[in-house]
């Protein structure tokens, strides 16, 4: 009976993988991300500092078109490996690598749910991350375990996933496109562009009006996605002996005052373009946070683990804000295993 269940599960994941990889090979995403504007603020609030990746081995599971991996390679990492299955995305990633003339980065075509231990050895990398990919795999927790396996004790693990609260309204729109478009990915993307022009406008502004059609595929044409909560990811951390260091967006209200007082915020705020409510809230938070910074001058290296109540309240706020916080990111340090 268990063997039958395993076979069915493998078939389910294989089907998901085939359609997801097929779509992102045809419509690579994002290809146009301005990485510099977001990394400073994001990493600071994850409890990450330059010494965590400068001169270190870094791996990205689900590298897509390679913007994040190339950023780490250009900003001091000793060795960077990007892993993905999409030929179309990897073609762009390798082209960008050639254009950048970086020699410390390699892109590999490989299944992130089946990392070969001969190729991806246990505890080899100092810094491992996956951004906006595991929720498309059909088994995100398995992918996360692989992320942890290849990370050294004392190394950094970062994961970014769709949030069940902030994604709620958008999923209603996505389901409408699925009902009208069926299994036809192209049709679902076209329907999304026609039915939800304001959302498309907002997302296109967020990506600096550079990839309109690809956005519709990523948002409305996608073959599969799962959504997750902060509480769920904290449980993953506990199962894999990880110690929480931070989140983006922050999971404690007080950490928002700290975040908006940081100079790195001013580069990131460009990504709020197209979301006027979020822009206004961010502007006000930045003004209020000036007073916070006057009294609290210390730099926070690692953030306290949020309580269940705090994570719930913050995610309810994300539900209200909605589309701009589709993905949330959490980071941790791999601890020594208890013997």
Keywords for this entry:
339 residues; Rossmann fold; 2 domains; 7 strands
Tell me what you see in this structure:
Helix 1 crosses helix 4, helix 6 (168-181) crosses helix 7 and helix 7 (185-195) packs across helix 9. Helices cover 50% and strands 15% of the residues. It has helices spanning 2-26, 36-45, 67-74, 87-100, 140-149, 168-181, 185-195, 197-206, 212-221, 230-239, 253-260, 265-268, 276-295, 308-321, and strands spanning 57-61, 79-84, 105-109, 125-131, 151-162, 242-248, 327-334. It has two domains: 2-163 and 224-250 and 325-334, Rossmann fold (3-Layer(aba) Sandwich), CATH 3.40.50.150; 168-221, no CATH class. It is globular, with a radius of gyration of 20 Å.
Concise account of the structure shown:
The protein is of the alpha/beta class and 339 residues long. The chain is 50% helix and 15% strand.
